Prior knowledge:
Layout: E1 9-15, E2 18-21, H1 32-37, E3 41-47, H2 51-68, E4 73-79, H3 91-101, E5 104-107, H4 116-126, H5 131-139
Parallel strand pairs: 3-4, 4-5
Antiparallel strand pairs: 1-2, 1-3
Amino acid sequence: SSTFHPFLFHFILFLLPSLWDTAGQERFRSLIPSYIRDSTVAVVVYDITNVNSFQQTTKWIDDVRTERGSDVIIMLVGNKTDLADKRQITTEEGEQRAKELNVLFIETSAKTGYNVKQLFRRVAAALPGMESTQDKSREDMIDIKLEKTPEQPVSEGGCSC
C-alpha cells in the first residue's frame, strides 16, 4: 500500500513520446519548466479527498501557461473517485475551476481504472489535427463479424482442409 503526501496531486506532462510524472513533489519543481517548454499536453491531477491539492492546481496551471502560453492542452483531473465517502471537492467545483481556467476536466480513479481510458482519449482528441479525424474515424471503420463455420469432417490423414 502506498502512503500519500499531505498535498498529494499529480502533475503529469506529456513530452511526446515521453510521459513525465512529478507527483506534485516540490523537489522536481526546478526541472518542470524545461519539461513544460517541450510539452504538448499537461495533465494536472488533484486528489478529490484533499482540499490543499485542489488549491495547488491553479499554481501548476499558471506555471504551464507561463512557459507555453496558450500553445498547450491542459487537462484538470480530479482523482480518487473510488473514495467518494471521503470526497472534499465536488465534481461541480472541479468543473467550475476548469471553466475559469479554460482547461479540460474529468474525474477518474487510478485505483479502479474509472475514466482513465476516457482521459487519454479526450487528450488525444484535443491534439492539433485530431479535430477533423475524430468524426471521420467512425466512417472509416468496418464492422467485421466472425462466425464459426460448420466443422468439416477430419479425414484419415488428420487434415480437414
